[in-house]
Amino acid sequence: MNIGIASEKSGLPSKTIRYYEDIGLLRPARTENGYRDYSADDIHRLRFLQRSRSLGFSVDECRQLLSLYQDRDRDSADGKAIAKAKLVEIDRKIAELVGLRGLLHHLVEHCHGDERPDCPIIDELAGEGLVQ
C-alpha cells in the first residue's frame, strides 16, 4: 500500500511516517519505480510507534521498545525497566508542575490586580519578588 493508505490505517501523518523511515524505525519495501510499499506488518509497527509516542516515550525509547517487540526471545523485564523509567520521569514532571502551579497561585493571590503599579507577579519575574 502507498503512504497515503498507510497514513490512514496507522493514524499518523505521512510526514511522520517519512520521518520514522528516515531515522530507521521503519523500512518499507520499494516498488520498481521507487515508491514506498507498506505491508500490514509496517502498519502494525506504525501503530505500535503511535501508541508508544502517545504514552510519552521518546523516539529513542520507541526504538528500544520496537526492538523488544520484534525480539520474541526478549525478557519482559527489559520492557518493564523502560516503562518504570518513564514513570519516574512523568512523576518528576508532575511534581515540577505542581510546584509551578503553587507558585503562580501564590503570586496571583498576592496581586491586587488594580490600577496600582505594584505587582508581585512582575516583581517575581524580575527577580525581586516574594519567592526567591
Tell me what the structure shows.
- Strands 1-2 form a two-stranded antiparallel ribbon.
- Strand 1 and strand 2 (about 35) form a beta hairpin.
- Helix 3 (about 40-55) crosses helix 4 (about 60-70).
- With about 130 residues, it is mainly α.
- The protein contains 6 helices and 2 strands.
How does the major sheet shape up?
A: 2 strands, antiparallel
Count, helices: 6
**What is the 3D shape?**
elongated
Low-confidence segments: none
Q: Largest sheet, order of strands side by side?
A: 1-2
Helical content stands at 55-70%
Topology pattern, helix = H, strand = E? HHEEHHHH
Q: Which radius of gyration do the C-alpha atoms yield?
A: 23 Å
What is the terminal separation in angstroms? 58 Å
Strand content: under 5%
SS-derived structural category: mainly alpha
Count the strands? Answer: 2
Topology record:
Layout: H1 3-10, H2 14-22, E1 29-30, E2 36-37, H3 40-54, H4 59-70, H5 76-110, H6 120-125
Antiparallel strand pairs: 1-2
Keywords:
6 helices, 132 residues, 64% helix
In short:
The protein is mainly alpha-helical and 132 residues long.
